[in-house]
Amino acid sequence: MEDYLKDIGNKLKKEIKFENLEIIDNSDKHKGHKFFSKDKYHLHIKIQSTYLNSLTRLNAQKLIMNVLKEDLKSKVHALEISIE
What we know:
Number of domains: 1
Structural class: alpha+beta
């Protein structure tokens, strides 16, 4: 699990300039939900980025989603993004 979160951090670091990044696994909070799968993650990305703040909120989120598009297809069920 820790390795996977590091992989996500590395993918974001390659594509986006940011000052701080925190990736939180909230999967346990979603057990019992209708489409819950232990093989897919519920993640919250908290990213502090002057660069992303220079974009519209929508474009900043699209950029993050684009970087993680393959993960969203296979390993991530839900993604919450907080840009500071």
